[in-house]
Amino acid sequence: MRVLFLTNIPAPYRVEFFEQLGKKCDLTVLYELHNATNRNAKWGDGSEHTLTYREVFLHCYRTIYDGGIAPNVFGFLSGEYDIIIVGTHGTPTAKMAMLYMRFRHIPYVLNIDGMLSAELSEKSIVNRYLRSLLFRGAEAYVVSGQDTITYLQNLRVQLAQVYVYPFSSINDVDILSNKVDQTAKAALRRECNIDTQRNIIAVGRFVTSKGFEALFHFMRKAPKDVGLILIGGDSDVYQVEISKLSQDVQNRIYFPGFLNKAQLAKYYKLSDVFVLPTHHDAWGLVVNEALAYGLPVITTDRCGAGLEMIKEGINGYVIHHMGEDNLRVRLDELLNTPELCEQMSNANIGLAHQYTIEKMAEKHIEIFSEILSKRQ
Fold first, then answer.
1. pLDDT at 89
2. What average pLDDT score do residues 41-48 get?
3. Do 112 and 196 fall into the same domain?
4. Both 124 and 147 in a single domain?
5. How far lies 51's CA from each of 55, 206, 342, 357, in Å?
6. 208 and 156 within one domain
7. CATH number of the domain that 43 lies in?
8. What share of the chain is helix, strand, coil (3-state, %, to 5)?
9. Residues 60, 133: one domain?
10. Average of per-residue pLDDT across 330-335
11. What's the confidence (pLDDT) of residue 170?
């Protein structure tokens, strides 16, 4: 099976997915750019990779932070491939490619890692119309969850062939095999210079949309043995918010900086609760990471991964993205109910095994095979 996959940048999780997919088919990946301007230069897992697929970097003129215009993309959109899959519908190159294939009657598959149906009403009528027009040309849709299906349905897209796959950045080997007991957690806290006994962890880019400010508000009244670990950027970003806190609270907020996957694992293991209080995450792969380390998850109704994977009271909580009061209630509940955390930990480790890069690649091959069989 010859597969062409158009994407924007070689994100670490994407590279690992392509390596798994390349073991199962004859895969060519077209990258628009070598990197995105809004990503830390250290972004990665710190390991070397052996490519199992053909890697092509298009001659692209950057027009947005993660994409641009690559005129030479058209030379790849031919009958040479059994499956052409577009994985980045938002870039100019992807839009040009889809319109070209639609005009030339070349079948293609649209891959969408996540869309938030709740945000569709916030788009202008013109924006919704253009998105609907753009998305209608696909032969099939490969999406990460039900909320994306709802998004497409609300755009009046006819979903003759729609498939759901387990979107992830986690490999089988990343999932915790043995639970971290309190002795091991204490050792990790000492190693990482974390002085607080109970710890909340949040991971992501330090931007307003992540909603991390709500965690500073929680820490104002948090017990003195509770700490907050914020990973993904420099503490200077939150200098104003931090300056409003007492010195005691400031001492219990930790900023380890930007960490790769291997470094980050220690902080997940020593923590007790994971929180992503986001105002917008079409998916939110850090939720997958938290599941893999057996952490109870609190996230919001603007997190695709939360909407798809978190079952209320079973493995975490999904709160309103502006619900700081509810965030406090849920954090207090989890921090003070170890038996509930244990239950959620077991549930999340089990769930993590269903969302791995290996299963993601396997499902894509199943989907491609079914699409090809329906052409005949």
1. 86
2. 48
3. no
4. yes
5. 8, 32, 39, 15
6. no
7. 3.40.50.2000
8. 45, 20, 40
9. yes
10. 96
11. 95
Same-domain pairing of 238 and 269: yes
| Contacts with 283 (C-beta within 8 Å, 6 or more apart), sequence order | 113, 114, 144, 167, 303, 304, 305
Domain residue limits at 150: 2-168+356-375
Q: How confident is the model at residue 24 (pLDDT cuts 50, 70, 90)?
A: very high
Helix (H) or strand (E) holding 163: strand 162-164
How would you classify the pairing of strands 253-257 and 83-86? unpaired
The partner residues of 112 in beta bridges, in order of sequence, read 143
Residue 303 is classified by DSSP as B
Considering the domain architecture, whether residues 49 and 62 belong to the same structural domain is answered as yes
pLDDT digits (tens, 9 = 90+) for 285-325: 999 999 999 999 999 999 999 999 999 999 999 999 998 99
- Give the C-alpha separation, 110 to 90, whole Å: 11
Total structural domains in the chain?
Answer: 2
Token couple for 50: 């052996």
pLDDT, position 36: 55
pLDDT value for 46: 45
* 8 and 132 together in one domain: yes
Residue 116 carries which side chain, given as an amino acid letter? L
Residues in the chain: 376
- Spatial distance between the Cα atoms of 273 and 373, rounded to a whole number of angstroms: 45
Query: 322-329 contacts: CB < 8 A, separation 24 or more?
Result: 322/279, 324/214, 324/217, 324/218, 327/214, 327/218, 327/275, 327/277, 327/298, 328/218, 328/221
Cα 67 to Cα 90: distance, rounded to the nearest angstrom:
8
Task: Give yes or no: residues 324 and 216 share one domain.
Answer: yes
Question: CB atoms < 10 A from the CB of 35, how many?
Answer: 15
Looking at residue 90, what is its pLDDT? 85
